[in-house]
């Protein structure tokens, strides 16, 4: 008994594995010689070419029929083949050739040549057809798109913020310059409102450019106002008799003189820096015009008919400007004040200060959202005592500094 022999488990010798392997196979064998393989491949390729030519001919006839009927074929697929600068349109039928390429390894080279270099008989010249349901532009639309792009390419178009203005600056640079000008204006404005008039005058004398910088910023602020008090006074005073003498105290750009002088008015403009229409003067110290406080009667040396303070009561000693206005005005002369409404702690208290200097109130207009307009008339009074004058100056806080919001 052998080593692995088990009683009752004997397997007959003729039914073993060796016997099953010795049985002949029923599968058909391919020819073993190379000549047979070549012949078989050629036969397969010829059969494939006949099939492709037949389908291509049918497709060409169908396209001719569609052209005669004026129909559009939407059963095409666009596919790029060859190099990057050469494109052809291949009908759907040529899919079979691509499929044949993957299925027949033996005829691979010839099938690839058919797909890459189709002959006129296999693939007619491509027709420019607008694909149904596709968003791809046609050749004409594509050409127009290319022309438009070359005429005004988007990458050559400058953003709005880079467009140059007439002074050679871009709009972005202009915006940045305006921001700097605004900051500069607020700094100068704060100094003028929170110091005495002598300090403001000394600042302007040390750097005369500050005067122009301040008024550049001021003009920018004016553009945001609903109205400009100076324009109101230009319109109002234009109705006064020709030859009226007007003193513009803290005139700025001297808009009153530039407008009213050509109309026959006499406008005397005073500010910290002289200009064509402007006389340099600190109106809180002394206005360079004749006048006195000693006489109760009308003094012939007092020739001013109207004094205008349009947003000019700026320094801490602004009350002295009102006293100077009383000195140079003729008896019965007018004092017109326009101020930012938010500056008043109490309008009635402000009016009381002005009347104590020697005026009576004639009109008050607070209908504007930004400004309050006040009209006064000079009346006779005795000379002010030192005590009375000191008490008046101590009430300057009735008019608060005008402070712009910091950004």
Topology of this protein?
Elements: H1 17-21, H2 34-68, E1 76-79, E2 88-91, H3 95-103, H4 108-116, H5 139-151, H6 171-194, H7 197-206, H8 209-222, H9 229-237, E3 245-249, H10 255-260, E4 266-271, E5 278-280, E6 304-310, H11 319-328, E7 329-340, H12 347-357, E8 359-365, E9 371-378, H13 386-393
Parallel strand pairs: 3-4, 3-6, 4-5, 6-7
Antiparallel strand pairs: 1-2, 7-9, 8-9
Relevant terms:
alpha/beta, 13 helices, 9 strands, 40% helix, rod-shaped
Task: Please give a structural write-up.
- The chain is α/β, with parallel strands linked by helices and 407 residues long.
- The protein contains 13 helices and nine strands.
- The protein has helices at residues 17-21, 34-68, 95-103, 108-116, 139-151, 171-194, 197-206, 209-222, 229-237, 255-260, 319-328, 347-357, 386-393; strands at 76-79, 88-91, 245-249, 266-271, 278-280, 304-310, 329-340, 359-365, 371-378.
- The strands form two sheets. Strands 5-4-3-6-7-9-8 form a seven-stranded mixed beta sheet, with helices on both faces.
- The longest helix is centred in the N-terminal third of the chain and has 35 residues, at 34-68.
